Amino acid sequence: MTNSAVTGTGLRVVRGGRDVLRGVGFAIPRGSVTGLLGPSGCGKTTLMRAVVGVQNVAEGTVEVLGRPAGHPDLRARVGYATQNPAVYADLTVAECLRYFAAVLGAPAHDVDRVLAEVDLADRAAQLVGSLSGGQRGRASLAVALLGEPELLVLDEPTVGLDPVLREDLWALFHRLAAAGTALVVSSHVMDEAARCDRLLFMREGHVLADDTPDGLRAKTGEQDLEQAFLRLARAAA
Ligand SMILES: Nc1ncnc2c1ncn2[C@@H]1O[C@H](COP(=O)(O)OP(=O)(O)OP(=O)(O)O)[C@@H](O)[C@H]1O
Fold first, then answer.
1. Which residue out of 42, 201, 206 has the highest number of ligand 1 atoms within 8 Å of its CB and is therefore the one to mutate?
2. What is the CATH number of the domain that holds 44?
3. Are residues 91 and 29 in the same domain?
4. How many domains does the chain have?
5. Do 177 and 71 belong together in one domain?
6. Helix (H), strand (E), coil (C) string for 43-85
7. How far apart are the first and last CA of the chain?
8. What pTM did the predictor assign?
9. Does 153 fall in a domain?
10. Ligand 1 pocket mutation pick from 12, 14, 45, 207 by most atoms within 8 angstroms of CB
11. With a 6 A CB cut-off, is 163 part of the ligand 1 pocket?
12. Consecutive H or E run containing 36
């Protein structure tokens, strides 16, 4: 079995008549947290959509857990939390999670586990519509964790969270990775880069680098990963 949960090859995506992914190649290993970093609009969400199989692709391939992205066998094996929380405002948090657990074929007791993991156990009986933005984001993350998927694709999961919660979520991501899960986590905040095991640096539809934080420091001679990104971006310009 290959160590890559995801392999993208020559991936080109056109949106709104423009090339937004320009023939990118990348790998997302199992058992680690891969950070997808780059400025707003560089194509992070589009790449994630291609990985979960909801994006029309003009050229190239994406293989996920040994199947083409979007294959029906992958439905319960891949968790995806979109940037906009995908939860029902008129259900309570617990009702919403029980609904998605049933859809995914996850055991009902999984609801308590994921609520504890995102620190929302005390909100189980509250209507989703009355949660704060950050709490709603965590409820959406809890949905993605149901059924213990082998691959987790998380689009900006820490946006709007206070430092304590951000710390807790990164600890959760690393616990899941240690148990073998492949995680890909997008952010446009460079200070999250150092928390990742691997980094995919993106800019204008290209992958500038696919390496470990230390590998990128060595390659660029910059200790600070934001500076490393800027150096790579300038070299590519
Ligand atoms: N539905 C769409 N129709 C046309 N163009 C789109 C659509 N969605 C995104 N785009 C364009 O595709 C490009 C990549 O967008 P994408 O959402 O992948 O970027 P991103 O890196 O995730 O940005 P952000 O960090 O702001 O979320 C952008 O130029 C965007 O304007």
1. 42
2. 3.40.50.300
3. no
4. 2
5. yes
6. CHHHHHHHHHCCCCCCEEEEEECCEECCCHHHCCCEEEECCCC
7. 38
8. 0.94
9. no
10. 45
11. no
12. strand 32-37
Task: Show the domain range for 208.
Answer: 1-77+169-237
Ligand 1 within 6 A of CB of 16: yes
Contact present, 173 and 183 (Cβ < 8 Å): yes
pLDDT tens, the chain, 237 aa long: 468 999 999 999 999 999 999 999 999 999 999 999 999 999 999 999 999 999 999 999 999 999 999 999 998 899 999 988 888 899 999 999 999 999 989 999 999 999 999 999 999 999 999 999 889 989 999 999 999 999 999 999 988 788 888 999 999 999 999 999 999 999 988 889 999 999 999 999 999 999 999 999 999 999 999 999 999 999 887
Query: What's the longest Cα–Cα distance across the chain?
Result: 52
Q: Amino acid identity, residue 96?
A: C
Q: Provide ipTM, 2 decimals.
A: 0.96
CA of 109 from ligand 1 middle (Å) equals: 37
Q: How far is the CA of 42 from the centre of ligand 1 (A)?
A: 7
